[in-house]
Amino acid sequence: MKRQILIRFMTIITVTVLLVIGILSFVTYNYYYVTATDVLKRHANASAVLFANSGLAYDYTDSEATIHDVLDSYAYPDAEIEVLDATGIPRYSSTGFISQRKLTREAVNQVRAGQTVTKRYDDEATGEHLLEVTEPVVSFGQTTGALRYTTSLERIDRRVIEICLAIVLLGTVVWGLAFIYSSRLVSSIVRPIQEVIGASDQIAKQHYDVKVNEEYSFELGELARTINYMGQQIKQQ
User: Fold this and answer.
1) Most buried among 23, 26, 186, 219, by the most CB within 10 A?
2) How far is 79 from 95, CA to CA, in rounded Å?
3) Longest dimension (CA), the chain
4) Are 74 and 142 in the same domain?
């Protein structure tokens, strides 16, 4: 009986702990990645407005030195900035290396509609986890190109993993403490019941001097006193 009660207790506790771990991990994951994306989107949006007003987003014929001076003013920590034309083709890059990563047809349509395009992916060459935000550059109501920010999520990944591991460790400790407490609680419930059952069995075998501890709380104490009284009454008769 003790084992069955303990299993039921621990099943409920295990499900609860796993649920809490899952919710906290999900909240942590969302908080860090959503926050990082929102911050980069706000920066990209402000930079795209300034870039549209700079007069450089029309024919893309400015010198590398000129465009780099402009891009330096829009820099975001540890992020690469690329200038894309209206067809989604990269024209300039803050690193000096122009990639061949053109926007997809769907992304080009979104940019032309004035929408910000966000993307998280793993770089096939380096295996690095990256965040990419493409912000349309709109001049006088016309989308003339886009600014694309690309930054590594390595530090955020590491931080999220550390926090999730801490949550799992805390959940394991809570589960262990709950197991110890539940074991003692179940023992405190089962022990007096077993004692009452044993005393009843002895009385049935005509051993009327058997005594049950009457110091148990609540109904168990009442039951113990009833068993003892019954034994004495049978003995007198």
Assistant:
1) 186
2) 10
3) 116
4) yes
